[in-house]
Amino acid sequence: MSLMINQLSKQIDHHQMLDEISFEIGLGQIVGVVGRNGVGKTTLFRTINGQYLSDQGTVTVDGQNVATQPASRTQLCFIDPLTNFFKGATIRQIQWYYQAAYPAFDNAKFEQLLDRYQLTSKQKLRHFSKGTFGLFTIILSVATQAPYLFLDEPLDGLDVLIRKNILGILIDEVATGERSIVIASHNLVELEGVIDRALMLKHGQIVNDYQLESMRHNARKVQLVYRDKQIPAVIK
């Protein structure tokens, strides 16, 4: 199974947010979509997942076009942190909704993760801190059993313990080789030790596609010492 994005384009308010973006993702990967704020990372995720209609291009999962075959959307999961409609709902109510949307929803995994992180079914999202909300979003995403998970800045502003818990869940999920996770972030450094691949987004286009393992293998460290405090022009 593979997810293929082909020539995907999207304009918002006459601004070209996505410009003929193409890439393919197989299973068993953690992929980072990296770029500055405002370059189109969230727009890309919303367009892939059908929240926005694309102006051009296709999104296919295992050869099925998600625009013309809506059932294939259950292979994708994107819980948009910026447009969440469940702030007043309890965890149990949200669970019921996602059970209906995702036929393979894993109740046992969902409840096990809730119990591990001391969350209860009667809690409401509006009472969650930013960290707890981020953690719950991850738990809900992995429980859908969708092969492709999209996470928008899931580590931004979280404390070290919450970050560790989230990364632990994601690494465990990908280790099975049966799903992939795509993470949008403006900070490559925070993803570097986790992702297998980095897609660099700039001006609505993928400008680089880095396989981090091969980059690490070929990397060389060079230490430079200067006679004075001036950096030579050639180095600049």
Q: How would you portray this structure in words?
A:
- The protein is an alpha/beta fold and 236 residues long.
- The protein has a domain at 2-78 and 146-218: P-loop containing nucleotide triphosphate hydrolases (Rossmann fold), CATH 3.40.50.
- The protein is built from seven helices and ten strands.
- Strands 6-7-8-3-9-10 form a six-stranded mixed beta sheet, with helices on both faces. A four-stranded antiparallel beta sheet has the order 2-1-4-5, covered by helices on one side.
- It is globular.
- The termini are far apart.
- The model has no long low-confidence stretch (mean pLDDT 90).
Which secondary structure elements does this structure contain, and how are they paired or packed?
Elements: E1 2-12, E2 15-26, E3 30-34, H1 41-48, E4 56-61, E5 64-65, E6 76-78, H2 91-101, H3 107-116, H4 130-143, E7 148-152, H5 160-175, E8 180-185, H6 188-191, E9 197-202, E10 205-211, H7 212-218
Parallel strand pairs: 3-8, 3-9, 6-7, 7-8
Antiparallel strand pairs: 1-2, 1-4, 4-5, 9-10
Helix pairs in contact: 3-4, 4-5
